[in-house]
Amino acid sequence: MAKTKRIFLVLLILLGPGSIIYFISRTVSNHFIKMPYIGFEYTLDSNGNKIDSVAYSVPDIHLTTFDGTPITRDSIDGKFIVLTTLQNECPDMSQCGMGIYHFNEIFFKRLVKNQKNYSNVRVLSILTDADGKPINEPSQKLRDEMLQYDSTGLWWMTTGDVTPFYNFNYYGDKFINHPASSKDGEIGLKAHTNSIVLIDDKGCIRGVSGAKTDSHIRNFFDMLKLLKKEDFDRKRAEKEANEA
After folding, report:
1. What CATH code is carried by the domain that includes residue 196?
2. At how many degrees (to 10) do helices 17-27 and 2-15 cross?
3. CA 108 to CA 88: how far, in whole Å?
4. Sign of the C-alpha dihedral, residues 84, 85, 87, 93?
């Protein structure tokens, strides 16, 4: 037992918590570990008691890509969405809610390279100011910068209202209201500006992470792998049931 604990501790130090979760899900025979649903909405009775709940699902959205293509709720159906914000000052780390260089090197390049496994994953970034308020027009500087990161069409860079994406319950308040932490290098007033959010193919929130550090981004990729494995297992079970 002590030896097992030591091995687990070494793996935790070397790989990070996200990798450990993914490792366990791939190796434990009953495959019981799944990504949670985040942001449940509750129905209350007349006495304020919870009588029903449903996982938050992204409602109608109206975004526009930098090249003028509309993005609606139908656009994300059936896709796994990696949600971030962008600021016109990006990729300057002190003025940007995410570490774009880290994200590109650790996450996005792997996504592009492994399209066989991640063909239905899109990165969706919404242009805001430091406090998460919408900005209607990207600067030429940002346009030029982002052209260096994506020529595949897998990274949707958009303008529009962020509220439908971040208005889910999270630790006692709506996530959109949570404050940023300047001591952690976050910009502005709001935490969502500095976050990466994982949305499944049904529009439900399945993961939330910081967007600045390489460790946060590595662990977020592990969340995506875990969610994709869940999707694979579900489709395989459906196929076997249909063939039975």
Report:
1. 3.40.30.10
2. 120
3. 20
4. negative
In 3-state terms, what secondary structure has residue 179? strand
Q: Centre a 10 Å sphere on the Cβ of residue 202 and count the other Cβ atoms it contains.
A: 13
Separation between Cα atoms, residue 191 and residue 182, nearest integer Å: 10
Q: Has residue 106 been placed in a domain?
A: yes
Supply the pLDDT for residue 29.
Answer: 38
**Containing structural domain, residue 224:** 54-233
State how far the Cα of 221 lies from the Cα of 87, in Å rounded to an integer: 22
Number of domains in the chain: 2
CA angle 193, 127, 129 (to 5 degrees): 60
Total Cβ atoms within 10 A of residue 105: 13
Q: Do 88 and 147 sit in the same domain of this protein?
A: yes
User: Is pLDDT at 72 greater than 50 in this prediction?
Assistant: yes
How many alpha carbons fall within 13 Å on the CB side of residue 48?
A: 0
Q: Are residue 103 and residue 223 in the same domain, yes or no?
A: yes
pLDDT tens-digit map of 191-233: 999 999 999 999 999 999 999 999 999 999 999 999 999 988 8
Radius of gyration for the alpha carbons in the chain, expressed in angstroms and rounded: 19
95 domain-assigned: yes
